[in-house]
Specification:
6-stranded parallel sheet, globular, 2 domains, 41% helix, Rossmann fold, single chain, 6-stranded mixed sheet, 303 residues, alpha/beta
Length: 303
Amino acid sequence: MTSTQESFQVALSGLRINSSTAIAAVIGDPVKHSLSPVIHNVGFKSLGIDWVYVACEVKEGEAQSALDAMKVLGLRGLSVTMPHKTAIASLVDSVSPAAQALHSVNTVEVATDGSLVGHSTDGDGLVASLKEQGVSVQGQAILILGAGGAARSVIDALQRHDCREIFVANRSLEHAQAAVALAPEISNAVSIADAVSLANAAAQSAIIINATSVGMTKSREVVTGNVLATPISIDLIRADHIVMDLVYHPIETDLLRLTRSRGALAIDGLGMLVHQAALQQQIWTGLVPNVSDMYQAALQALA
């Protein structure tokens, strides 16, 4: 039995599932190793409500079938992960402003009239995770490394929470410019290959966020002859920087470890995952789960 399965059993301990139990689920491909069931079931348990959360593997191209099944089976909520976020955004009955801006949905709510509403909680989950660490993004200049889906959700949330300036650094300048279009009045695109521009962006920023996969267990890279996986040179990080890595497997990436060695505050990406899940539960139930319990359960599953 894997640690994730054991944590799932712990999350379900004490629950009595019956015909009146509300069911929520995550759809994606793959989802076998998803932490979402562990996180959400602990969250539901902390609320003392009769809900349970399961993972359903849904192949690419089957998003509409998943929404149809949601209605037929009476599921009360749906989490959406890759490769379905964009497809679901165009298939639900309506979308929140964030989901509309991103053309991406990670949460489906069943409204009181039975219609399906798409939301995106990823970016707000990041802001909530930073806030929990005593970090406000309001009025701050922020450097984001990467320009993919995760970076785009972060950019959308940051501009809605009144950050002052955003630098988007990416290997492809074209992709960085596309991401900047989400907040053109406060964003600038930078090529990671342009060492001078990247250094200037880091120097002007108070917060640095890694939204790339660099540092992930399966994506380690060889940098300057050492087995390290950092998206930028550690020399660019000052003691007064706040560095957040959206990678959470491993929980301490090379970027975070070396950030701490320079005396700067390092924040892992598991908090964002947990907070976005807590926001999903608020959308579905109107209640705020115990985020600390959810985080500890996720940490145990990763151990």
